[in-house]
Amino acid sequence: MPLSSKSKQIPFTLSHLRKLSLLPDSINMKGKLICAILIGFLTTNSSEANPFLKLQEELKEKYPSSDPSLFRLFPSEESQVSKLFESGKVTSNDEDSEEVASLDLPKYINISPVVSNTVIHESGIVIKKYTVQKKDTLLKIARSFSIDLPKLKKHNSLTSDALKIGQILEIPVQVKNASSSRVILKKIFINPVPQSRVTSRFGRRVDPFNKYNRVYHSGLDLAAKVGTPILSASDGEVVFTGRNGGYGNSVTIQHKNGYKTVYAHCAQILVEVGETVKMGRVIALVGRTGTATGAHLHFEVFRNGKIMNPEVALGITEKYVTKLSKTEVAGM
Question: For the packed helices 75-84 and 29-43, what is the interaxial angle rounded to 10 degrees?
Fold first, then answer.
């Protein structure tokens, strides 16, 4: 059975060795010593620094002339037993008792969703004003601005070619950058565990718990160390937190446009139901709770109640177009 991670260090004394009189004579001394260790583990609750050193000291006091090798474990046995008590702790495979050290994590981690940011110039007609100078004629002005004379006269409502010095004309000119716009392309979702490693993709796969069975994998597995921050993939509202069967500790966030994301197998959850979160909010820590073969985030995406491939969702972008004023364009 799994040993608790909270078990104390165990001292083994000669009192435990005395219980060996109950064991059959067919068991050799090395086998009996292993039994003594197990007896000590099951019957003692006190704590000392090193149980093996304590036993060795008592043996020397009681049997000063004895052959030390008589009480030595085989190398493989010694390695297996001592691992259980390394640094005074017993290792544990119980995912429910998994504890992550408290980290000084920021509330948000800024991960830019911007794919591209460009300024686009559009051609069109701009109106330029011109003040008539001495010796100017309509034909001369039309040629200097590369515009047809009839078009120039029509735009200024002129019925003759006569001009006056100081007269102001409007010249419609075709230019390549009549208007300018900033076009930003953004992803609607960011990777919830940046720099993680994809260990299992969406779709049919071999069951990790039964290699002879193929199952449908409903999400994207992103492997990372236990305690790695998990980020909200987009702005939204937390609609579920807590234990969710084989998903272990999970968080569900509702986003705009019918999107919903699920974050499973978390070690710790750092948000509450009803909380509004922004993209990049640290919502949980990577773990291995629930049905999991190792530390990772199981990430799912839904659109209008239907599950979709998370990698497709991570590739979707939105375009944002903003018209720029002449002043903004001139300042670039």
Answer: 0
